[in-house]
Design brief:
Largest sheet: 5 strands, mixed
Structural class: alpha/beta
Number of domains: 2
Number of strands: 12
CATH class of the largest domain: Alpha Beta
Strand content: 15-25%
CATH superfamily of the largest domain: Metal-dependent hydrolases
Number of helices: 10
Amino acid sequence: MANKGELLTASAYKDLLKRRIEAAQGIIPCDLVLKHCRIVDVYTQSIREGDIAIIDGVLAGIGGSYEGRRVVDAGRRYAAPGLIDSHIHIESSYVSPEEFGRLVVPRGTTTIIADPHEIANVCGLAGLQYMAEAAEQTVLDIQFMAPSCVPATAFDHSGAVIGAEELARALQDRHILGVGEFMNYPGVTAAQDDVLDKLAAAHEAGKLVDGHSPGLHGGGLQAYAAAGIRTDHECSTAEEALERISLGMYVLLRNGSACRDLPNLIGAVTLLPTSCA
């Protein structure tokens, strides 16, 4: 099995696929089988009983009956997919990525999308590199976004600057999922050259761009969405959420330590559940 983040050769991947296909059909034993689970199926919104079969760290089969080199009797306990936190700043927790993983994985969060713009504001791309290397030391799946606004505003002088050239270099790393929250929404709506250069770098790299546009609406929001920005986590009302959804954006529902917006946004969830995260 490949290490975390390691790409397999075509030949090695072919061998892995063969093992996975055979294990899924019960032809060969799996590495681990969790027997007698009550499986929470979030796609069909149902609970069914059966085994969970794992080989090479990947689910090979769900339901039915499997054999494995190691077997654990779940005793009809519930088994559910891990939670995904779609936007977070690890630095705000005042702990390292390794410690953050140690704290949240036992509580059900298995994946996070992290924007390390706080450390990047001080250390630049070296801070992003540190976070990525530290993330290799935890079982938590940490996907990183490259910070879009360093410094956060033109008035800041925290120590680092990440321009379009530096951003383009960061986006070449396959571990970088995309561009972090584009806080400079006035620069987007004004079509500033430096902002357009960053958006063009994301387009050239084929990477996603996350949004941050509190209070933006009407023509300004139309422009923000037209620029290719895919998400927003700054909605505080259902109306703001629905306006973004109507433009093809995804809305991230925030209910954190700083802003508790979920009670106000829940109305948008009941209307359009597939466009909110």
